[in-house]
Amino acid sequence: MKIEDLFSLSGKVAFVTGAAGGLGLIQAEGLAEARATVVLSDIKEEKLMNVKENLKKKGLRVDALKCDVTNEDEVKRAVEKVVSKYGHIDILVNNAGVTYASPTTEYSLRDWEKVLRVNLTGIFLCSREASKYMIKQRRGKIINISSVYGLMADISPELPYYTSKAGVIGLTRQLALELSPYNINVNAIAPGFFPTEMTKPFIEDLDALSCTLSKIPFKRVGMPDELKGTVIFLASRASDCITGQVIVVDGGWTIW
Ligand SMILES: NC(=O)c1ccc[n+]([C@@H]2O[C@H](COP(=O)([O-])OP(=O)(O)OC[C@H]3O[C@@H](n4cnc5c(N)ncnc54)[C@H](O)[C@@H]3O)[C@@H](O)[C@H]2O)c1
């Protein structure tokens, strides 16, 4: 097979959650640049529609659907719409995520449950719905966005975030095993430090930024293309024999 065919997503349909900005948008753009038809989804409808128009202007094949990953009915409807419009769903990127920083002694049950609901239950719901179709197709690629904080502890007080991201890794392994008879790959990406809305407070706080960068061997944040490359790889034929794994994209942060 030619190298360009190995990585091409031509003819594939992808559904990306939390794609109105940040890493979701970067990954959606990357998949579309690799020739997939990409359905972007997010809870923020207006931002989502603007992003879709911008990507269309770049000549990319994209669509958009409002979807709150914690809403079971919305998730079901969104996946159904993708399949009824495009005939199949080949790639699911479970990217939507939230966090709130607060010491554990002051963490409200409401916020704890919200973080777990978006970061973990959202992945369960989207994977459940998409895999129903992927099983019939006897193919599919599910890519879950974890974090280096699913692999290690750090000083920022975000207990449910670390817990949820470790949970994503466990979910990835178990779901990979369960879906393996159907030729469905389930893998996770654990990004390190990328500039987005989520990491803005750390980037604006120069002490926090230099403390984090001092722990990253490459002494820099991640670049959009570095994440695009990883998601395209996991969505493409090049990764057909990889399942249940976590690819860490962190400039070496976790190798200490
Ligand atoms: N930025 C980083 O350095 C970094 C590092 C490791 C992991 N991550 C993970 O990458 C993913 C994206 O993070 P980001 O940095 O782009 O954050 P972000 O806050 O910039 O983007 C998150 C997106 O998810 C959407 N979202 C939130 N709740 C949702 C819901 N219930 N349903 C649908 N969409 C929802 C938001 O509207 C937003 O567009 C998250 O899972 C995050 O944990 C980010």
Q: Which tags fit this structure?
A:
alpha/beta, 256 residues, globular, Rossmann fold, binds nicotinamide-adenine-dinucleotide
Give a description of the structure.
This protein has a single domain (3-249), classed as 3-Layer(aba) Sandwich (Rossmann fold), CATH 3.40.50.720. Helix content is 48%, strand content 14%. It has helices spanning 3-7, 22-33, 45-57, 72-86, 109-137, 159-179, 200-204, 206-215, 224-235; strands spanning 13-16, 37-42, 62-66, 91-94, 140-145, 184-191, 246-249. The protein has a seven-stranded parallel beta sheet with strand order 3-2-1-4-5-6-7, with helices on both faces. Helix 2 links the parallel strand 1 (13-16) and strand 2. Helix 4 (72-86) runs parallel beside helix 5. The protein starts with a helix and ends in a 7-residue tail after the last strand. Nicotinamide-adenine-dinucleotide is lined by residues 17-18, 20-24, 42-44, 68-70, 95-98, 118, 122, 145, 147, 191, 193-194, 196-199.
Quick structural gist:
The chain is α/β, with parallel strands linked by helices.
Query: What's the CATH superfamily, by name?
Result: NAD(P)-binding Rossmann-like Domain
Please list the strands of the largest sheet in the order they lie side by side: 3-2-1-4-5-6-7
Which structural class fits the helix and strand makeup? alpha/beta
CATH topology: Rossmann fold
**What is the CATH architecture descriptor?**
3-Layer(aba) Sandwich
Q: What ligand molecules are bound, each kind once? A: nicotinamide-adenine-dinucleotide
Indicate the percent of residues in helices. 40-55%
Total of helices? 9
In total, the number of domains comes to 1
